[in-house]
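Continuing the series of single-chain predictions for the mutant panel. This is the parent chain; the variants come on the following pages.
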Amino acid sequence: PACRWDDMMWLCDKIKENGSHFIRINTNGLADLITGRNAALELDGKVDAVSVSLNASTAEGYEAICHSQYGLQAFPAILKFTSTAVFNVPHVRMTVVSTMPKEEIDDCKRVCEKIGADFFVREYIDK
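Parent structure:
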């Protein structure tokens, strides 16, 4: 959704104008790099929950898995976006997939605890 961030924020406003609807955004957390601004600040009052795919506990691990166009800048940007969202959105969590090694899942959990986001392990669906 961050590729069309302004449209998404407009849509959130329209949905909220029409009543009390719960809005959750699922994201890779790269909105700041995509928009060139502190995008998580714009979620205040518009979004009820944000779920960020963490995928790794380090910048190098994230780059090895995701091959982001932003390279090693991606991981710190994800952490910044999420830590800002924690102060602007009622429910913020970071997720990983259950197929990760236990040690990496534990490291990811510590990353989440450090920035104040909830942590959730998504079960891998094979089919």
